[in-house]
């Protein structure tokens, strides 16, 4: 494998782009590979944000293409169904709700889910992108603090 592809920075960035791990998996990985907290945070947040705008701009076309094939339509309905379960927070609190949905580092939350919920609710792209970026940045802080053990030191229980 090429050295740039196997570097901790590159792998942290790529892991944070994945919908299953996002920065929740990437940040602890980067720290475990010896990256400084600031570097791991910056790379993981950047990698988590990279897919958001293309998805926000392309979900209508992706949705239309997926509906042409039975398996694509099933995958689309399954994916959107999972996102629908999370849209109440955003319906109730709007922009702030979208930030919270993305910022809480629990399963089936994060940038990818926030993007899908934004699509389902037809939130204007510029507002959705800003809320998701803020949410990702906050999620990064939470995951970084948890990874460094600060949350445990302060006495919070997760």
TrEMBL record:
On whether Membrane is a keyword of this UniProt record, the answer is yes
Read off the InterPro entries from this record: Sm_multidrug_ex
Question: Which parts pass through the membrane?
Answer: 41-59, 95-121, 127-156
The superkingdom listed in its UniProt entry is Bacteria
Which keywords does this chain's UniProt record carry? Answer: Membrane, Transmembrane, Transmembrane helix
Coiled-coil spans in chain: none
Phosphoprotein keyword on record: no
Q: Which Pfam families match?
A: Sm_multidrug_ex
Q: What name does the UniProt record give this protein?
A: Ligand-binding protein SH3
Q: Which organism is it from?
A: Aerophobetes bacterium
């Amino acid at each position: 494998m090429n050295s740039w592809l196997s570097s901790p920075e590159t792998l942290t960035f790529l892991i944070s782009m994945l919908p299953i791990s996002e920065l929740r998996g990437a940040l602890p990985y980067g720290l475990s590979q010896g990256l400084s907290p600031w570097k791991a945070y910056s790379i993981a947040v950047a990698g988590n944000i990279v897919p958001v705008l293309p998805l926000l701009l392309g979900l209508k076309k992706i949705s239309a293409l997926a509906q042409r094939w039975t398996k694509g339509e099933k995958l689309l309905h399954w994916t959107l169904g999972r996102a629908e379960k999370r849209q109440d927070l955003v319906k109730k609190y709007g922009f702030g709700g979208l930030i919270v949905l993305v910022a809480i580092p629990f399963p089936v939350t994060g940038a990818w889910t926030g993007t899908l919920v934004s699509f389902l609710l037809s939130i204007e792209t510029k507002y959705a992108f800003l809320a998701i970026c803020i949410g990702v940045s906050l999620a990064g802080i939470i995951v970084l603090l948890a990874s460094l053990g600060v949350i445990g030191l302060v006495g919070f229980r997760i």
